[in-house]
Amino acid sequence: MSEQAQLDTRFNEIVAWFEQLTPASLASIDQVYASQARFVDPFNQLIGIDRVAQVYAHMFATLTGPRFIVDERVVRGRTAFLVWRFEFGLNGKPRSIQGGTHLTLDEQGLISSHVDYWDAAAQVYEHVPVLGSLLRWIKRRLAS
């Protein structure tokens, strides 16, 4: 099997791990993330597998039924870009966030860098009372 075919297979395994992520499967995070993995999203910028695990544990503790659905992926060598939906419940209401993730694998096939790209203002903050009204007003004022 070629190196690229092996990397494609590895990214398929990683996508499956994300899509099947549960509090119990967090125990296998060391089979997905490198010990000094870098993780960045609109709320976090951290290094270390223990801290990455805390982000996911917090997600399960504060949201109802969180799950990732990967709709698209582009793989090039040891990097991939995933287009996803994150579905969850919050305060009894279903929510969905759309975004993308840039992943880089190390030599062992573990995630060494995970950077999420999604619009926190439109997809989270605009749903917060008062703050959401202010953000929507600003957005209307700036629109052409």
Can you tell me about this structure?
With 144 residues, the protein is α+β, with helices and mostly antiparallel strands. It has 4 helices and 6 strands. It has helices at residues 3-19, 49-62, 120-123, 131-142; strands spanning 33-40, 45-47, 64-76, 79-90, 93-105, 111-117. Strands 2-1-6-5-4-3 form a 6-stranded mixed beta sheet. Strand 5 and strand 6 form a beta hairpin.
Lay out the secondary structure:
Elements: H1 3-19, E1 33-40, E2 45-47, H2 49-62, E3 64-76, E4 79-90, E5 93-105, E6 111-117, H3 120-123, H4 131-142
Parallel strand pairs: 1-6
Antiparallel strand pairs: 1-2, 3-4, 4-5, 5-6
Brief description of this entry?
The chain has 144 residues and is α+β, with helices and mostly antiparallel strands.
Main attributes of the structure:
144 residues; alpha+beta; 6-stranded mixed sheet; 4 helices; 39% strand
Q: Looking across the biggest beta sheet, what order are the strands in? A: 2-1-6-5-4-3
Instruction: Provide a count of the helices.
Output: 4
Q: Which structural class fits the helix and strand makeup? A: alpha+beta
Q: What gyration radius follows from the Cα positions, in whole Å?
A: 17 Å
Number of strands: 6
The coarse silhouette is: globular
Helix fraction?
25-40%
The main sheet comes to:
6 strands, mixed
